[in-house]
Amino acid sequence: MRGTIEGIAAALATNGLILRGGFRFASDEAAPASLSGAPAKSVLLVGQAGAIPWPHFRRWLERQARGIANPLDTWSREVIGAVAQEFGGRMVSPSDRPYLPFQQWAMRTEGLKPSPLGILMHPEYGLWHAYRGALLFEEEILLPEPHKTIHLCDTCADRPCLKSCPVDAYSEQGFAHQACLGHVRGARGEPCRVGGCLDRNACPYGTEHRYPPEVQAFHMAAFARL
Asked: Which terminus, N or C, of the chain has the lesser number of Cβ atoms within 10 Å?
């Protein structure tokens, strides 16, 4: 399977995506179905670091009809789905219903923990990474255990990610969705609409991987349409 994993990683890289590891489901787990319909035995997570996939996505989007719904999800399904088809896996997405436990899978795969914003904190990428899909296989794939990593939030005394939002959308009590949405849509929310979440941008880790303003504005516009 090693050659297959390398081939999958190379195929994903043509669109700026990366293979973020995976694991084997335990025999007593209620694993989702593989391509054949039998319970999957292994899962490989697909994602991004920084905004490397953005140019690939933009070129794809320019060829699509105007007003396509959920274009980033659609692009991710298309390109990851093509890799799944090539290697005999089943592609699943974080937006599939019923929702699959992508965050739990990611924590299990990479040993990450959530930040105060809910986004998993990566020791290299900080908050500037994402999971775009996963590949489910009926075969068992031998993968190394995740390395133990320092949870950077534990070393951060100031927690600027909880102090930069004008409406205190994030706090120890959780995410105030309606307060955030109302602010982003309102007259005073232009800095967020143009440059992204102020709390997220205040995090001092992984800044070299920070999404450019264009990318952050795209995601904020999608959030504001909810």
From this structure: C
The rounded distance, in Å, linking the Cα atoms of 144 and 21 is 9
Q: For the range 149-153, what are the long-range contacts, defined as Cβ-Cβ under 8 Å and sequence gap of 24 or more? A: 149/110, 149/111, 149/112, 149/123, 150/123, 151/112, 151/113, 151/121, 152/121, 152/123, 152/126, 152/205, 153/113, 153/115, 153/116, 153/121
Query: Which two structure tokens, joined as six digits, stand for 36?
Result: 């054949």
Give the percent of the chain with pLDDT over 90. 89
pLDDT above 80: residue 14: yes
3-class state of residue 130 by DSSP: strand
pTM above 0.90, yes or no: yes
All residues at 6 or more sequence positions from 172 whose CB lies less than 8 Å from its CB, including other chains: 116, 162
* Sequence letter at residue 188: R
If one counts every other C-beta atom within 10 angstroms of the C-beta of residue 103, the result is 16
Task: Say whether 201 sits in a helix, a strand or coil.
Answer: helix
* pLDDT tens per residue across span 149-163: 899 999 999 999 999
Q: Tell me 138's DSSP state.
A: S
Is 32 exposed, middle or buried, given 0-12, 13-18 or 19+ CB atoms closer than 10 A? middle
The length of the chain is 226
> What does DSSP say about strands 18-24 and 174-175: parallel, antiparallel, or unpaired?
unpaired
Scanning the structure block, which residue is given the tokens 């009590």?
A: 173
pLDDT digits (tens, 9 = 90+) for 85-133: 999 999 999 999 999 999 999 999 999 999 999 999 999 999 999 999 9
